[in-house]
Amino acid sequence: xxxxxDAIAVMRTGEPSSNRLRVGGDWCYRFAPxxxxxxxxxxxxxxxxxxxxxxxxxxxxxxVLLPHGATHVLxxxxxxxxxxxxxxxxxxxxGPTDLLCGKYRFDRSRAHFLVEGLPDxxxxxxxxxxxxxxxxxxxxxxxxVNGAHPGRDAAxxxxxxxxxxxxxxxxxxxxxxxxxxxxxxxxxxxxxxDLLHTNPARAWRLEDxxxxxxxxxxxxxRRFTTLTGRAPMAYLAxxxxxxxxxxxxxxxxxxxxxxxxxxxxxxxAFSHAFKRHFGVAPGQYRLxxxx
Length: 291
Hints:
Distance between the termini: 26 Å
Helix content: 40-55%
Number of helices: 12
Radius of gyration: 21 Å
């Protein structure tokens, strides 16, 4: 199993969206907060982004990810006092700045720690030879958005998924000493995560997991907790609940089948654990709107 892919899949809800906008003059747009992650790519021209801290200057090819959907301003200058809602933006075909803007919709009730641990603003400047996959995805996406090519919708949807993966990969590559990037690069901890993700239904004990990855219980517990922010069995309990929540929302499998898939011997035990975690019973969660 791929932990990064699982982390994205368990949070995702609905389809990502994007649009390409050409702007000129003293443009300044405010983006309201939303339940998801936003991104911006400067295809041509320059701009500034303010997301609560000091303004960040953007150059051609730069990409920005806002993992927590925080409010922010994208503008021609560092001054954001004249910001108007992005929804009022009008495309200017002759504008010197070409932007690609979009968002991914996440269910925050099952947000993975890998994404929750990211900073509010991830800026990935364009550099020659760096993050080639990300650059290729940006180029392809820029050519498809607002185009009229056959299969455009399918291409854009696939490229948006690729863009998110490449944005996260690029941040991991530039922050190898951070918790989750370091965890995924640690052979034993990555193997432990892989085992928990692959088979959450197994009646795992700490000693079983330690034996599988070739570490002592104490060493595994210490390194796993330090790098991921959760003890191994606490992470497993969370992963079971997050997986169950996704299965409830994204399909119509019966409750006993879901309980069995995530490691509970009875629907009653599963329902009790689920309600303790989410505050509502599984059936109610399935019928409620996405958080």
